[in-house]
Amino acid sequence: MQFPNGTVQECILLGFEVGKLQRLLILTFFTLLYMLAMAENITIITLVVLDTHLARLPMYILLSNFSWLEICYVNTTMPRMLLDLALSNKIISFSSCFLQFYIFFSLGSTECFFLSSMALDRYLAICHPLRYPQIMSPNFCYVLITASWVLGFLASIIPVTLIAKMSFCGPNIIDHFLCDAGTILALACPPIPKAPIISLIFVDVVVILGNIVFVVLSYGSVIVTLMKNSSKGNRVKSFSTISFHLLVVTLFYGPLAGIYVKPGVADSNVTKMVALCYSAITPFLNPMIYCLRNDQVKEALLRLWRRKAVFLKSKIDREKKRKGTGNI
Q: With 80 as the cut, is the pLDDT of residue 70 above it?
């Protein structure tokens, strides 16, 4: 990507300005968190791919692709952050910084559309159960998935292009562990044009608030339907499922709205903590909230384990038979 004339060629990510012991503790904690988040999301994808029952259910088609999104999300920020903590290498080229901003911003928009797709799935399943199998076919699920990815990355094209045309004079010190909209704009030469900021805020408001409204209306309709039509036992079970979905939505939109609806307003330390929530902690919590506490997922894990045990047993039996034949 070509940028206009400016003095910023490299940036210094300050990250976490702490002592050596605290740095080691932070590195250890987030390395474990990163590994667990990767393992959880890979497990969900593997289960849905290998288990024929889950692979036919719309919710799990969406969730497996949501897990892939979380893997992309966490790999956009965490490896660089861990490398900086381990090696104290705080220098990043401006083009790499800008690329991280674009990908991170686009993945955040994509997650907004994914959460709306999953809210639509729950709305149709509970409010229109008779039409649900016809509407939420696997093909329609893949349409929703494709639309989420395309809209997520297209939504950021205009503000990112306008920001890329700005001149960047520095100072080149970024008081953060990643490059996002606020940190990039802080490097711009004054006076900062209004068009990039207006387009950025407009896209943020439309994507974030638009999807929040859709999610709230969808789950609101679900709750009303459950209150009217469900028996007490089914109502408790359904509310338990919906509460997990709402928890994921809250974990994502709470921090995201505070940072991106009004970028640059919060204190830098608060901004770092909030960014950690939705870039590292949320991808770790989401699989546990959505899937790993789910009975269908537990049953799929047992089926996969049994299949593996049968496969290993048959392999051992074949090996014993081969050795017995060889001895004869």
A: yes
**88 φ/ψ sector (left φ>0, alpha ψ -120 to 50, else beta):** left
Q: Which of 148-162, 173-187, 238-252, 294-308 has the lowest mean pLDDT?
A: 294-308
Residue with tokens 């045990």: 309
For residue 196, pLDDT beyond 80: yes
Q: pTM for the whole thing? A: 0.85
Q: How far is CA 299 from CA 222, 239, 305, in A?
A: 26, 21, 10
Rounded distance, CA 29 to CA 81, Å? 12
CA angle 196, 201, 202 (to 5 degrees): 95
Of the candidates 172, 174, 157, 188, the one whose C-alpha atom is nearest the C-alpha of residue 3 is: 188
Average pLDDT, the chain: 83
User: Is residue 265 very low, low, confident or very high in pLDDT (cuts 50, 70, 90)?
Assistant: very low
Q: SS in 3 state form for the chain?
A: CCCCCCCCCEEEECCCCCCHHHHHHHHHHHHHHHHHHHHHHHHHHHHHHHCHHHHCCHHHHHHHHHHHHHHHHHHHHHHHHHHHHHHCCCEEEHHHHHHHHHHHHHHHHHHHHHHHHHHHHHHHHHHCCCCHHHHCCHHHHHHHHHHHHHHHHHHCHHHHHHHHCCCECCCCEECCCCCCHHHHHHCECCCCCHHHHHHHHHHHHHHHHHHHHHHHHHHHHHHHHHHHHCCHHHHHHHHHHHHHHHHHHHHHHHHHHHHHCCCCCCCHHHHHHHHHHHHHHHHHHHHHHHHHCCHHHHHHHHHHHHHHHHHHHHHHHHHHHHHHHHHC
Q: How many residues does the chain have?
A: 328
